[in-house]
Amino acid sequence: MSNREAMLEKLADLDAEHAKAVAGGGEKYVERHHARGKLLPRERIELLVDEGSAFLELSPLAGWGSDFTVGASVVTGIGVIEGVECMITANDPSVKGGASNPWTVKKIFRASQIAEENGLPTVALVESGGADLPTQKEIFIPGGKLFRDITRSSAAKQPTVAIVFGNSTAGGAYVPGMSDYTVMVKEQAKVFLGGPPLVKMATGEESDDESLGGAEMHARVSGLADYLAEDEHDALRIGRRIVARLNWRKATPSRRSLTPQDVNQRRLGEVTASTNADSAYAEPDADPEGLLDLIPTDLKEPFDPREVIARLVDGVSPTNGVAFDEFKPLYGPSLVTGWAKIHGRQVGILANAQGVLFSEEAQKATQFIQLANQVDVPLLFLHNTTGYMVGKEYEQGGIIKHGAMMINAVSNSTVPHLSVIMGASYGAGNYGMNGRAYDPRFLFTWPSAKSAVMGPAQLAGVLSIVARAAAEAKGKEYDEAGDAAMREFIEASVEEQSLPFFLSGMLYDDGVIDPRDTRTVLGICLSVIENKAYSGTDRFGVFRM
User: Fold this and answer.
1) Which of 106, 149, 399, 468 could form a disulfide with 112, with the two C-beta atoms 3.0–4.6 Å apart?
2) Domain range for residue 465?
């Protein structure tokens, strides 16, 4: 099977999994929801965002492999509303009434983190019956962070808007209660801490939904609703007008390449780091369609990341010059580093070439990360690494020190980081290349990606060697048949747990994407990070030399 055929097969599997998320609670519940004259979450989002604009959905496979519906009963992503990039969350009422399960909470937390790190306003499209009660022990305690995040966003001047289409009860009532702006749909929205049955049990008081927490009551009596919408379309129209009046301005307007003169002026305080990006840019010199041909079916086979870069970055143009200015091309060849632009925005790129990271690659990466921080340029990490090299020669040569230098640089770098896992991302190489634990602003994977402490065969082999040594130490005969079965089981388990669907279901990435969409996704992300000011650091802690 060719590389292209293998990738297309993986993409077909990805489409099938995404379809499960889009299907929500299934045909029966979708039809019931539509029969009530209500829209589904993605239909609401489509009407909310600017016509023709892209919506970057995040974590669509959350909960994959668990007992819960793929997608975790909520849609999250970044969309443009009246020209403003916003974080949008939308409960899916076709899945158990939009009830929040443990994966829902984790998915919303990730959306909140992205909004906070990138300075985005948040628009919540609310229709949820609250917590999934059978799993409340996993939701209640950590779930309080949701309300904390709403208030902290407001305090940071990142506006929050809640548009309530149906139930928003119990703890969920605090979402509209804590948002800066609240819109409620007439005769549909129901917002109360305790519904009629609970009120009856707690106080003996008889009440109905509308008088207790209806939209009109909250608009006329309690004052919780700032706007009363006639229907869902009207509510979305009002939401758009709210965002239009936020007087939103990006903290860091688009940046162009910094010239030495720019850098000198900045040091003198004569200009800020914010400069305009080139309004025009060239499409990649190589066709992005070719990305499907590049990734080997066997990740042990190397591929040239320069071929990937050529299909992601802006091509040669009068304003751009060389598409990719490689840095230190003859030193540490297993890691490619250099400067390029994506949609007119400058970025520094670190891309694994032959998989293994040696001391030279680690030192090269450390210097390059420092340089990016010196000129306030975001970094893009393209993963395909089996980790840092092991062996007596390399240990004596200081691989631990040099790997630590690279991880130190990644950990303390303050320019925004973006990561894409193309192939393997194993061991400490995942850390050095800015894996999830190092808080990249965004991290996406390709269907070809694999990530674990080490490769399945290597991990099973290590366990076998340890078990064999333990048996010999006890003077026992080693069970070869049992060893073979153990290795087969471990390899299969690690293989499954290192695949992108599993990792995405655990929210270890922000989504599995078609390689051909990578340039567009990165362009959106680079635009989003400009909503919050950033600058590089000159403080990296102690480097062990």
Assistant:
1) 149
2) 456-497
